[in-house]
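hi! just following up on the protien thing from before. the input was this:
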Amino acid sequence: MTNASAGPAAPATEGGSHRRLRRRWVVLAGMVAIAGIAAVAVWGVAGYLAYDKLSSVHARCALREFSAQTPADFEAYDGDHSLVVDAAPYRFTDYTDVSFPSRDPSLTIRGWFAPGTGGISAPTVIVVHGRDSCRRDPVVMLPAAMLHRAGFGVLMIDLRNHGDSDADNGRWAGGVKEYRDVLGAWDWLVAQGADPARIGLYGPSLGGGTVTIAMGEEPRVAATFADSSYYAFDVASREYTESEGYPAWVVPAGIFVGRILGEPELGSRDPASEITRLAGRPFDIVHGLSDTTVLPHNAVELAAAAYAAGTAVEPWMIPGAEHTQGMLLRPTDYEARLLAFFRGAIGDPSVR
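and the predicted 3d structure came back as:
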C-alpha cells in the first residue's frame, strides 16, 4: 500500500546543498586565512633577514684596510685605490686620545682631539664617520686634516658600535640614536671651555645624516657640513635596500622588525624632519653626481628643505664622483669649499 502522506525528497536535497556550500565557504576561508598567515610570515622573515644583514656593523672597523691608520700616517684613497690623494702634506701628530659619555650616558665614545691654533678657544669641528666605518677612514682623515692644517681644532670620534667606542647592540640606526654620540662630543668640547658658537659638525654618508639630525636636535650647534647625506629615511632605505639586492617592499617589514628587536626609534628622525629646525644656521652640502649608494636627488631635496627653513644653500654636485669621492676627485676645490664654509660659519682660526 502506498503511503500517500510521504512528501517529495527535494527539501532534504536542498538542505544538503546548503551544507555543502557552507563547507566550501569554510574551506575557502581557511585557505585564505592560511595564505594570509603565510604572507605575514614571509613578510616578517624577509624583514628580519634584510634588517639583520643591512643593520649589522661588521667587525667594528677591525678588518678594514685602514684599521691601523692614525692622523700621523694615514693614506687617502677610495675603496679600490682608483683615486689617491697625497696625504703627506696633511698628516699631523698633535692629537690625543679622548673619551667621554654619549648623551646616552651608559655608552663611552672614544676619539682623537687635536686643538686648533689658540687651543680650546679656536674654532673646532667634530668629524663623524659613515656606516660600518670609524675615525680611521680616509674620507674622515682627509677632511679632518684639511681643517687642522688651516688651524681648526678637530675632534674625530667613533660612533657607538663602531671603532673603539662602546657598543649597545652592534647595529647602526641611520643616525636616529647615533646623533646623541655626536652631541656627547659637543658637550665634552663645551665642558673643556670651547665656545658653542665656534663648534661645527662635519660628516660623510651616514655621518652626514647623523650630524644633520644632531644640529636639528641641539639648537646651539653653530654649523654643519654634510657630504653625501641621505634626506628621507624611508626613501633612502628603499634605494639602499634595492642596491643591496633586496626588494623595496622589505623596508617596512625591516623597520617593524628592527623596532621589535631593540631599535624603537628606527625611522623616527631623519634629516628631512630635522633640517626644518635650522632656523637660519649655516649648512652646506656636497654630493657626487655619480653616487649609486645615496642617490644625488637626496642633496637637492636636502637643499630645498634647508632653504624652506631659512638657510640658503647651493649644493655642490660633483660630476663623476661616486659616494663620498668628491674630496678625492677634487681635493683642492673640496678643501677650499670646506675651509671657506667653516671660516664663515664658526670663525677664522687665524683671527683671534
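Strands lie at 76-77, 84-85, 96-101, 108-114, 124-128, 153-157, 199-204, 223-227, 283-288, 316-318.
The first strand starts at residue 76 and ends at 77.
cheers
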